[in-house]
């Protein structure tokens, strides 16, 4: 699974099926996290996402939450990341 940050500021549309010759500026996206690159014993059904207060270095921090659905085969997790500025 991958998590992206999407920038809609300069987008004029998000559909690619407007027809031949249509001119539009799609949104841009930046990969925030590729879960295959981190060492988690298990990642389960993500049920929620939000933003923490800014970190002391002023960076944003998304938080993802999963729950175990009362199943012994699933896990409850709270995962926090640091969103680095572009070019970092």
Automatic annotation (TrEMBL):
The organism's taxonomic lineage, starting at the top: Bacteria, Pseudomonadati, Pseudomonadota, Betaproteobacteria, Burkholderiales
Domain of life: Bacteria
Protein name: Uncharacterized protein
Organism listed in the record: Duganella levis
């Amino acid at each position: 699974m991958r998590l992206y940050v999407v920038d809609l500021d300069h987008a004029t549309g998000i559909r690619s099926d407007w027809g031949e010759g249509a001119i539009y500026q799609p949104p841009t996206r930046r990969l925030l996290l590729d879960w295959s690159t981190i060492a988690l014993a298990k990642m389960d059904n993500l049920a929620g996402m939000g933003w923490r207060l800014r970190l002391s270095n002023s960076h944003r921090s998304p938080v993802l939450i999963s729950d175990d659905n009362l199943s012994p085969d699933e896990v409850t997790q709270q995962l926090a990341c640091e969103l680095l500025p572009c070019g970092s």
